[in-house]
Amino acid sequence: MSITRDDVQSWLDRYVDAWRTYDPTAIGDLFAENATYKYHPYDPEAVSGREAIVKDWTEPSGDASSRDDPDSWTAHYEPYAIDGDRAVAIGETRYTDPDGSLRDHYFNLWTLRFDDDGRCVEFVEYFMELPERLKASG
Length: 138
Description:
- By secondary structure, this protein is α+β, with helices and mostly antiparallel strands.
- The protein is built from 4 helices and 6 strands; from the N terminus they run ααββαββββα.
- The chain has a 6-stranded mixed beta sheet.
- Helix 2 (24-30) crosses helix 3 (50-58).
- The longest helix is centred in the first third of the chain and has 17 residues, at 5-21.
């Protein structure tokens, strides 16, 4: 299967929507039954299987220790490279305090592999936080 830039952008947009709502059905629709999800490339084990990924998002523990309030962040991701069933996406997530001041700013790179139904089979996050010294201008 070959995916297109539009396919990947649609998936990324649905990912952000699912993150904002924590809707189990929307989360599950993103991932294949046997999908794996790593919050860091160096994690010794991935979250494995659609049900486990949905549970990890909706009943957070470990690295996903709490849900993000949908009004506390903005995010935008877009495809960077696509090769057959694999894609790399880049983007940014900004977290703000109630007064609107920037709390955290992350630069993200995600590697993804999709099945024939357009569901993600492998997902790995790579991210960097904007250094404190740059947050005032970020």
